[in-house]
């Protein structure tokens, strides 16, 4: 974990238009807390990618139990604070420590270790590892993580034979809501593909 990156980033949150209007009016974000969330519990943003935020909301609106009727995206200014940056060696070292601890705890309790789905869209293992890391920090009286940052390769190849995937993105999960310094309406020209 570190405070080595620039102080502020722009993040984009895909949601329903009504939710977006409430957020723009100052209502607090509601963190996600599913056992399959890629970066554990937090408020999720797409870094520097408003179009992907809108695409996510559009995709989510097609799911049966989705609360999204009118896909929308809002922008936010985010101070990373104490960031578990999974694009760094140090961040990945913390994950390995948490994973080893989770393995020990689940074995001792004679439980099965969670697993990620084959398509990596449901990240139960990754979420459990990150939750374990939060617990380790808490037990050791270390400062809590404000934000998490990870690169995720997702989707089909960008072109035949490509090593790049069409939905690759940087995801930010904000655990400390005071890191969200402001929200803004995304200009329409930033939402064109």
Keywords:
single chain; 193 residues; alpha+beta; seven-stranded mixed beta sheet; 4 helices; globular
Kindly describe this structure:
With 193 residues, this protein is an alpha+beta fold. Helices cover 29% and strands 23% of the residues. The chain is built from four helices and seven strands; from the N terminus they run βαβαββααβββ. The chain has a seven-stranded mixed β-sheet. Helix 3 packs across helix 4. It is globular, with a radius of gyration of 17 Å. The two termini are 34 Å apart. The mean pLDDT is 94.
What's the quick description here?
With 193 residues, the protein is of the alpha+beta class. It contains four helices and seven strands.
Number of helices: 4
String of helices and strands: EHEHEEHHEEE
Number of DSSP-assigned strands: 7
Rg for CA atoms: 17 Å
As a percent range, the share of strand residues is 15-25%
Low-confidence stretches: none
**For the residues shown, what is the average pLDDT?**
94
Question: Which structural class is indicated by helix and strand composition?
Answer: alpha+beta
Helicity, as a percent range? 25-40%
Distance between the termini: 34 Å
What characteristic shape results from the CA principal axes? globular
The major beta sheet can be summarized as: 7 strands, mixed
Strand order of the biggest β-sheet: 4-5-6-2-1-3-7
